[in-house]
Design brief:
Helix content is about 30%, strand content about 15%. Helix 4 (about 140-150) links the parallel strand 4 (about 120-125) and strand 5. The relative contact order is 0.17. The chain has eight helices and eleven strands. The longest helix has 18 residues, at about 240-255.
C-alpha cells in the first residue's frame, strides 16, 4: 500500500516535536464532522449554507481535509495522523452536501474569517475549493479579489490547483491568484478516483490566462487516508484537495516554530525549501513539499 507509505513520509516532521499548537487553521469546505481525531479542537464551526450551530459534514470532503491538517489518530491508535495534530480548526461550511456551492458563499466565509481572525487565532486558510467556470476565471473575479484581500490582511492562503489537468491553463479559481500559495498534486500520475471518476494526470497546470506560473508547490494527493464523516472511520480520497491540507498542516508547524513569520516570508520559505522534481514549472511549481527542509534551521 504505497499510498500509506507516501503519507507517512510526509508526516516525518513528528520527529521535530512540533504539533501546530496555538495555530488556527480555517477550513472553507463542506463542513466538519466532529471526528474523534479532532472534535475537541474544532475552535468554532460557522455554517454559511444552513446556519446550523453544531458541527456537521453532509458530504465528508471537509472532514477528510480537516483530518489531513489536524487529525491526531486517536481513533486508529495513531496510525493515521494529520500534519499538525494539535492545531486549532476553524471550520466554515461554504459547500453543500454535493460539494457544490456559490462564489457568494465562499466570499461570505472569507469575510467571516477576516473579521474573526484575531478572535480565533487564525493564521492559515485552507481552500480545497475551485471553479473552472470561464466567467469567473479572471484575476479581476470576485473570488480572486476575496482571497487577495485575505492575503493582504496577513493570512496565509493555501489554495488547491484543481483537478482539471493535464492541459495548460487548467488552474482553477481562486488558485490563479498571484498572491496565494497554490498547491498541485505531486503524484497525479497514479490512476485514482476523483469525485466518482477515474483520473490520471489530473492536477491543474499553469500558466494562468495572465501568464502567471502556477502551481507554487506540489504535495501528495493520490489515495490519501484521512477521517470520514462516520464515527471513528477513515476513508481514501484523491485530488489536489488532499494535497492542499498537507501544505496547510506543514505551515502550521512552521508558524508554531516561527510565530512572527509573515505570509510573504512563509511563501518565500516554501520556494527556497521545495524539492525539485525536475518537472516543468507549470506542473510542479517550485517543487514538492519537503517538511524536514521546510522546518530546519
Amino acid at each position: 500500500m504505497d499510498y500509506v507509505k507516501q503519507q507517512i513520509h510526509c508526516l516525518s516532521s513528528r520527529q521535530t516535536g512540533l504539533t501546530g499548537r496555538g495555530i488556527g487553521v480555517a477550513v472553507l469546505d463542506t463542513g466538519a464532522y466532529p471526528h474523534q481525531d479532532f472534535k475537541e479542537r474544532i475552535t468554532v464551526f460557522k455554517d454559511i449554507i444552513r446556519g446550523r450551530r453544531d458541527a456537521y459534514d453532509d458530504n465528508s470532503h471537509g472532514t477528510h481535509v480537516c483530518g489531513i491538517i489536524g487529525g491526531d489518530g486517536r481513533a486508529c491508535g495513531g496510525r493515521f495522523q494529520g500534519m499538525a495534530p494539535e492545531c486549532g480548526l476553524i471550520c466554515v461550511k461554504v459547500l453543500d452536501k454535493k460539494g457544490n456551492g456559490f462564489a457568494s458563499d465562499v466570499l461570505s466565509g472569507l469575510r467571516w474569517v477576516r473579521e474573526n481572525r484575531e478572535r480565533y487565532g487564525i493564521r492559515i486558510v485552507n481552500i480545497s475549493v475551485g471553479s473552472f467556470n470561464r466567467k469567473v476565471m479572471g484575476e479581476d473575479s470576485a473570488l480572486v479579489q476575496g482571497v487577495d484581500a485575505a492575503w493582504d490582511d496577513g493570512l496565509v492562503m493555501v489554495v488547491a490547483a484543481g483537478n482539471q489537468g493535464p492541459g495548460s491553463m487548467t488552474i482553477t479559481t481562486p488558485g490563479i491568484s498571484r498572491k496565494v500559495i497554490t498547491v498541485g498534486s505531486s503524484d497525479d500520475y497514479k490512476a485514482v478516483m476523483v469525485m466518482g471518476s477515474q483520473m490520471v494526470n489530473y492536477s491543474g497546470r499553469g500558466p494562468t490566462a495572465s501568464c502567471v506560473c502556477k502551481p507554487d508547490i506540489v504535495a501528495p494527493g493520490s489515495k490519501i487516508i484521512s477521517c470520514s464523516n462516520q464515527p471513528g472511520r477513515y476513508q481514501v480520497k484523491s485530488g489536489t484537495s488532499m494535497s492542499t491540507p498537507l501544505v496547510s498542516g506543514a505551515l502550521a508547524l512552521l508558524l508554531e516554530k516561527y510565530p512572527m513569520m509573515t505570509n510573504v516570508e512563509v511563501k518565500l520559505r516554501i520556494r527556497e525549501r521545495a524539492m525539485d522534481l525536475g518537472l516543468p514549472h507549470n506542473q510542479q511549481g517550485w517543487g514538492m513539499l519537503d517538511v524536514g527542509r521546510l522546518l530546519e534551521g
